[in-house]
Amino acid sequence: MKNYLKLVNFEFNRVAKLFVVLLGITLVIQMVGVIVLSKEYLNMANEKIYEDMMTKIEFLENFGKMNFSQIVRSIWFFGPIGLCAAGVGFYIFLIWYRDWVGKNTFIYRLLMLPTTRLNIFYAKITNILILTFGLVAFQLIIMPIEMLVMKGMVPTEFRSDMGLNKIIAVMPELSIIIPRSLIELILYYGAGVLAVAILFTAILMERSFKWKGILVGLLYSAIAVVFMILPLLLQEFVFNGFFYPIELLGIEIVMGVMVLTASVWLSRFLLMKKITV
Amino acid sequence: MKKYWKSIAILVVILLSLGTYYVNAAMSAEHYPEFVIRTLSGDANEIRPLVLDSSYAADTSTRSYTYTSLKINADGSTYNNSSFLDQLIGQPPTLIKSLRKEYPTFMRGKDPFADYFFENKEYLAYADVKYGTLSSRNYKFDIAVLNKKDEKTNSFKVEVPNEKGLENVSVEDVQMVDGVLYLITHNMMRDQEDLHDEKHIYIIDQGNQKISNHEAIIQVPEQQDNLRTDLQFIRTSPTKANDHLFILKTEKKMIEDTESTREEVVGQEVISYNIAMKETEKINVPDLKLDENQLSFADESTIYFMTLDGEELVVTPYSLMDDQVGQAYRIQLSGEDGMAYAYMTTVKAGKLYIVSAQMTPKIGADVIVADAHSGKTLFKGQIALKDASKEKGNFELYMNEMFVD
Questions:
Q1: Candidates B84, B96, B116, B141, partner chain A, best to mutate (most A CBs within 10 A)
Q2: Exposed, middle or buried: residue B368 (CB in 10 Å: 0-12, 13-18, 19+)?
Q3: Is B117:B260 a contact under the CB 8 Å cutoff?
Q4: Within the 81-110 window of chain A, which residues sit less than 8 Å (CB to CB) from chain B?
Q5: Which candidate, A164, A92, A157, A167, places its Cα nearest to that of A127?
Q6: Contact A245 B88 (CB under 8 A)
Q7: How many CA atoms lie within 13 A of A154 on its CB side?
Q8: Could you tell me which of A121, A136, A34 has the C-alpha nearest to residue A85?
Q9: Which of A46, A213, B125, B221 keeps 20 to 30 A from A110, CA to CA?
Q10: What distances in angstroms separate CA B114 from CA A152, B65, B100, B293, one per listed residue?
């Protein structure tokens, strides 16, 4: 356990800089977005009211009030989130391959540590999870601040305020990243961990058998995916909706746990017996 | 400790941030107002068996509505939990929900539409149409009959006979008369270029699991020049046994004005079909004029023809026993500009239930129970906010379906 925690800390320190850069980019771009969009709205209001001689009421009827969800819908807000997602996706591969490249192959030292090699696998997957949750947590912290900035710029009669929960509720895209209930959080991110575990297994296959390993890795991923969607296909085409939805969820969870176990077991085998430096 | 500060910091941030968010989300769980049926006059016991499947939307200034479903009955309102698991389980209509509770095994894989079910003391029957691939258009009835006594299910698939250009089949009603299963469907037939609508009946031989006989009840061309004919079943309780089917045939003429086209009803007749005898009979109701939003309902041996006249619902009972038109009566509804709002109606056990389809802060929603034969109002009430002083702002409440136990 202690060794695992040490490894987690060690891995996190290696990625901390990249992580902070992602946080910084997100904060800056989103904040600029809030200011630009609020300004745009205000300019439009000024133009209509002072130049086109619209009354305030007419303007509000035609153009509506400013609302934070308009900012959330813009590229200013979603761009950085997409960038962070891409960054984490990229790092899923980098977290392994960076150990093999460079002057002194770092993986050699990692594998030589006096601890079970599976801890390396666990530490890396934990780090991906920390990165993801870290970005989500940061987003949750800066959103109220961004709302405050908008409130400071747009006068009360021109904006309609919404709570954080409400904004996330009306944005289906956001509620994938920030699920509305703990159960969903566990299910969504559990599925994420499963996907990362499958990818890690495929990466380890490539590291063990090189070119042939890519093929085996792809095959393994395909089998895992088929295994996961098999209950859904059977339900639709063979059983004609035999299972109630809640039972189907149960079956899917069992399938997920099975695939996860298989991935961990395979990874353990590869790390212990087959991995080459 | 010093070399761990980054990891500890990020973990603390994650836990605090997500923790605060989810605790907040749980605490400030969306607040929904409670609705009650307030008695204006009459006996409040009359609405005991009534359940209204409704949906509520709070007006948000972004013009995006999210509907939450709720049930309203004599005791007040219960919101269906909008949690993820509840959404996953789904919110089937009250009837399907109670059937699922009682017959969980039988109800597996059955589409949640009340029209597909028939229930009496001995049997619970279900029928649906399964499609083959789009290219081969291979329709099959998916039939299941549960014998409640020995708890045995007879389920089978049987091919829909396709004699002449069957384009589409949909099940509209399932009936059982004297132990014989009947499927009543709406079929679309293609005869060269012309489309025909028809109501069709299939008699199912449960023992041999095949269709023993079938025939068209009535067939009309889809459209001819400016004439359009609609066939519509007069509604009955979805699961109730009926030995007669009643079809309202409406002929409409398209009239082209300079700018728009409108439809005018040119002829209307009610056709009664005796399921067991396979006899079609025209029912002669003088001065029948049922408009688009006709709410007619057949119950036991009476058809209640209903039509809106201004703010009043005019109900004409028609007794099938002696082919007599009964005394028409009028029930005052609330409306606007001389037009009644949308309503839904049901007749069960000699009682007529009328419920508004919509409620907003400006539009009140009526709940009326009347004696179906005489029109005497037994209960009159209104759906109201339980605590009106606390609830401000706009909302919309829709009554989607009513269920009388």
A1: B84
A2: buried
A3: no
A4: none
A5: A92
A6: yes
A7: 28
A8: A136
A9: A213
A10: 54, 27, 12, 21
Chain B residues with CB under 8 Å of A176 CB are none
Q: Distance from B71 to chain A by nearest Cα, in Å?
A: 22
pLDDT in tens, B184-220: 888 888 877 777 888 888 998 888 888 888 888 887 8
Contact B203, B209 (CB under 8 A): no
Structure confidence at residue A76 (pLDDT): 92
Chain B residue with CA closest to A11: the answer is: B7
**In this complex, do B84 and A140 lie within 8 Å of one another by their Cβ atoms?**
no
**pTM (whole model) above 0.80:** no
Of residues B13, B62, B109, nearest to A69 (C-beta) = B62
Complex ipTM value: 0.84
Asked if B142's CB is within 8 angstroms of A134's CB, the reply is no
Please tell me which residue of chain A has the smallest CA distance to B104.
A244
β-pairing, B297-299 vs B302-309, is antiparallel
B7 contacts A183? CB cut-off 8 A: no
CA of A157 to nearest chain B CA: how many angstroms apart?
13
**Domain residue ranges of chain B, discontinuous segments joined by +:** 1-29, 31-84+289-405
Question: pLDDT band at residue A128, thresholds of 50, 70 and 90?
Answer: very high
On chain B, the residues whose CB falls within 8 A of the CB of A162 are 60, 62
Determine, for residues A136 and B13 on separate chains, whether the beta-carbon distance falls below 8 Å. no
CA distance A244 to chain B (A): 7
The minimum CA-CA distance between A174 and chain B, rounded to whole Å, is: 14
Angle at the Cα of A175 from the Cα atoms of A173 and A181, rounded to 5 degrees:
165
Domain-wise residue ranges, chain A: 1-102+120-165, 179-277
- The one-letter amino acid code at B260 reads S
Q: Which residue do the tokens 């107002």 mark?
A: B33
| Nearest chain A Cα distance for residue B117, angstroms | 17
pLDDT in tens, A36-77: 999 998 888 888 888 887 788 888 877 888 888 888 888 999
The C-alpha atoms of residue B137 and residue B271 are separated, in whole angstroms, by: 31
Q: For tokens 């058809």, what's the residue?
A: B303
What are the b/e assignments for B72-88, b being 16+ CB within 10 Å? bbbeebebbebebeeee
Cα B129 versus chain centre, distance: 19
Taking the C-alpha atoms of residue B403 and residue B353, their distance in angstroms, rounded to an integer, is 10
Helix (H) or strand (E) holding A27: helix A2-46
**Would an 8 Å CB–CB cutoff place A176 in contact with chain B?**
no
Burial class (CB in 10 A: 0-12, 13-18, 19+), A205: buried
Residue A73 DSSP symbol? T
Q: In what order do the strands lie in the sheet with B210-221?
A: B166-177, B180-191, B194-205, B210-221
